Amino acid sequence: MPVGLTSKTMHLLETLLGNVNDMELQEIADKTHIPKSTAHRILSSLEKERWILQDSETRRYSPGPRMLIFADYWRLNQSLVKIADQPMRELVERTGETAVLFILDGYEARCIHIVESQSAIKFSFRAGSSFPLHAGVAGQVILAFSPPELLEEVMSQPLQAFSENTITSPQMLKAKVEEIRSIGYGISIEEVHTNARGIGAPILLDNHRFMANLLISGVKDGKNKIEDIAPLVVRTAQYISSLLKDKDSFIQ
Fold it and tell me: Which domain holds residue 177?
């Protein structure tokens, strides 16, 4: 029998998600070896948050919309990483800089994949780490190609400074985002970390739906000139976007 509330909750969700048919409370309790009263209490809480649904007539339980959206979201990101990995490796080989893939996660830019440079001097990233949307190109590209309501929401909150170059003015942030949208890529220099420079371009599905931000990160005074490598980042992002055109094969 699972021990601890978190373990029991996850076991209940896994059981519902792995079952083809809707399930009765007793059946769930039997399969999970969780006491019926405990299972009912956890399921009731999950139902309030729409992680599961209970049919009002049959009283059977099934996965709810939040669980299904989460599962689709995870599968989508896993597919994106598989598709983007080789083009990112080729970009790293050509530029000598680290390539990073960011997605929108709430009000943060979340790192989901990294191909590191072999250079002795580089900035390290960790899968799962996040950046605020206003500070640096990791989030600013996301703002530029996401619905405008997201930018408005970010600008309505205090914009924290991480360095003397961090944009903390809503008006300046809006201008920067509009510029990125206009030229198709973004650049940031020391907005979060000293001596760091980033160049990012959007990966789009069907030429309009934002999927991810492809970013390369290097030192500010490295051997690469921005005007030389920015087009490489844009072309790589566009190439990955072209691989996503077949929606059905992408999400499988």
Answer: 71-251
